[in-house]
Amino acid sequence: MRQTSFAEMQCSLARTLEVVGDWWSPLVLRDLYLGVDRFDDLVSDLGISRNLLTSRLDKLVTGGVVRRERYQERPPRDRYLLTGAGRELVPILLTLMAWGDRWATPDGGPPLGVRHRTCGHVCTPRVTCSECGEPLRAEDLAPVPGPGGRPGPGTMLIAQRLSVGPGAAHRPRR
């Protein structure tokens, strides 16, 4: 069954989900990051059907986060590599993995860790402020209108609530 398209929504999150927001795409991206980059290897590792993987890879290529590279002409075989946009998704995926390690840990503990090559330590990925480096928490954030913000599909009420007046953006509804 085809999901509703988010391509026309005036929301960066919705448009991101249009490219990578199905169940399989984050796992495909994870495998590509880990070096599992050939079609048959992806099928084997993920247990995904060939048709579904073809569809997901096509969508990721069209979305600009993956590129195909021919490694064999006869028969034609491609490998799949992350683009710059795809590599920028890796820390986000690893942060989701860290959330899963904390809140949805598989039996036996986390199945994968990551080492920060700069300092050499095994670390827990987290989201931090681009300005001060502090970890970001929901209660410490206040949404503000952006330059492209306007009422539209996916942002109709958000646009209204962010323009209500002083302090409106500081009190998200719960």
Automatic annotation (TrEMBL):
Keyword set includes Nucleus: no
Name the keywords, alphabetized.
DNA-binding, Transcription, Transcription regulation
Q: InterPro entries in the record, alphabetically?
A: HTH_HxlR, WH-like_DNA-bd_sf, WH_DNA-bd_sf
Organism the protein comes from = Actinoplanes aureus
UniProt-recorded Gene Ontology molecular function terms: DNA binding
Q: Which residues form a coiled coil?
A: none
| Pfam families, sorted | HxlR
Q: Where is the HTH hxlR-type domain?
A: 11-108
Could you identify this protein by its name? Helix-turn-helix transcriptional regulator
Q: Does the keyword Transcription apply?
A: yes
What domain of life does the native source organism fall in? Bacteria
